[in-house]
Specification:
The chain is α/β, with parallel strands linked by helices. Helix content is 36%, strand content 15%. 50% of the residues are buried. The structure holds adenosine-5'-diphosphate and 1,3-bisphosphoglyceric acid.
């Protein structure tokens, strides 16, 4: 796999380099949104700075949230462009489209050492299309922004959080331009190797903690991880599908109804490996002002929703983590963004920092939670920018965005 060092060695002055970054950060819900956690932007800076200082004309493409292939104001990267400019300490040009006329003119007009950020790449249906030809067509348009290989164009993938997506800007475009692995992707993979036994056996007990809201993504991961781990602690939005499969009322909580049978089977097959919460914090609505109640999982009211794990569950999870020697944690235990539902995530985060051995936190929201809850980041062995990407790596799956970089 060629790296950024290789690209910089051959020289980038005057060349247009397309960089895929993961700038999918949380935004405030104001009319003029601002970035509430800039961890992923900071993690993307080193590659951008190296290229700019070497004289490249840098075109950055990235996504924000999950728009459905069309522009939506709330998913605009504009607030990210502003924060990126502040952190870089240099101007960031912002194109209002991704591969349209505005983007093309701005890309053509770049001078050495200048940076252009394109609008959310997922505003274009070609980015995430299941149709190979549609994705390839969009990837061709992206690649052309660099002028193409004949004109010195190159592609750097530094979006670790998105390498598990076979999307146009992560996968297809790498086939069209000389391609290089960014420093963030390289460094993240090096740490994760230590959790897969590729660099020697994982130290046991190996405990994985899963939460968050991307339930259907992660249920598949659980199945693959079960044989590899000693304990799997499940909280966050995904625990309710498991609780439902045990016959509990889960009210209006996040539920993946078509996965209930899968959860029942996983619980039956896993012996005591999967640990579920014994109590949850419920409220009648998704709001910081709603009246909250902590109840045993057997007593969830049908008209309420579970928004955090309760204190007994935190204590039980902490006991397991206390014995652990290797820990991977992805996904908040509750809606930590709202104060009444942050205690579960805080308690589990603190317990993870107390574990011996290697502790890795993965995922944009999990990393943001650590920072928002005031927990010292240095107490973790590694904070990864990718949740789903890390999990798929740990499963042993091929990551399309990494595999394509190894092709000549
Ligand atoms: N019980 C719950 N119900 C709904 N959303 C939840 C619940 N618990 C956690 N969440 C939400 O999950 C989101 C993070 O999920 P996810 O994207 O899967 O994590 P990560 O980005 O760390 O991989 C947070 O915004 C949090 O509010
Ligand atoms: O936030 C991300 O992943 P994560 O929540 O698994 O860390 C990445 O930016 C990928 O986003 P996606 O899961 O919408 O493809």
């Amino acid at each position: 796999m060629r790296t950024l060092d290789d690209l910089i060695k051959v020289g980038v002055r005057g060349r247009r380099v397309l960089v895929r970054s993961d700038l999918n950060v949380p935004l405030s819900k104001h009319d003029t949104p601002t970035v509430t956690d800039d961890g992923r932007i900071r993690a993307s800076l080193p590659v951008l700075v190296r290229l700019l200082e070497a004289g490249a004309r840098v075109i950055v493409t990235a996504h924000l949230g999950r728009p459905k292939g069309a522009p939506e104001d709330k998913y605009s990267l504009r607030p990210v462009a502003d924060r990126l400019a502040q952190l870089l300490g240099r101007p960031v040009q912002f194109a209002l489209d991704t591969v349209g006329e505005s983007a093309r003119l701005m890309a053509d007009g770049l001078s050495d050492g200048e940076l252009l950020l394109l609008e959310n790449v997922r505003f274009n249906p070609g980015e995430t299309s299941k149709n190979d030809a549609e994705r390839a067509e969009f990837a061709t348009a992206l690649a052309l922004l660099t002028g193409g290989e004949e004109d010195g164009g190159a592609y750097v993938d530094d979006a670790f959080g998105a390498v598990h997506r076979a999307h146009a800007s992560v996968y297809d475009v790498a086939k069209l331009l000389p391609h290089y692995c960014g420093d963030l992707v390289r460094d993240e993979l090096a740490v994760l190797q230590r959790l897969t036994g590729e660099a020697g056996d994982v130290e046991r007990p190996y405990v994985v903690v899963l939460g968050g809201s991307k339930v259907s993504d992660k249920l598949a991961v659980i199945e693959a991880l079960l044989p590899k781990v000693d304990r799997l602690l499940v909280g966050g939005g995904m625990c309710f599908t498991f609780l439902k499969s045990q016959g509990y009322e889960v009210g209006k909580s996040l539920l993946e109804a078509d996965q209930v049978d899968t959860c029942a089977r996983l619980l039956a097959e896993s012996g005591d490996k999967i640990v579920l919460p014994s109590d949850v914090v419920v409220a009648p609505e998704f709001s910081a002002d709603a009246p909250v109640l902590t109840v045993p999982v057997s007593q969830m009211p049908a008209d309420q929703l579970g928004l955090d794990i309760g204190p007994d569950s935190v204590a039980a999870f902490a006991r397991v983590l206390h014995e652990a020697t290797t820990v991977f944690w992805n996904g908040p235990m509750g809606v930590f963004e709202l104060a009444p539902f942050a205690a579960g995530t805080k308690g589990v985060a603190e317990a993870v920092t107390g574990a011996r051995g290697l502790t890795v936190v993965g995922g944009g929201d999990s990393a943001a939670a650590v920072r928002a809850l005031g927990i010292d980041e240095n107490l973790f062995g590694h904070i990864s920018t990718g949740g789903g990407a890390s999990l798929e790596y740990l499963e042993g799956k091929t990551l399309p965005g990494v595999a394509v970089l190894s092709e000549s």
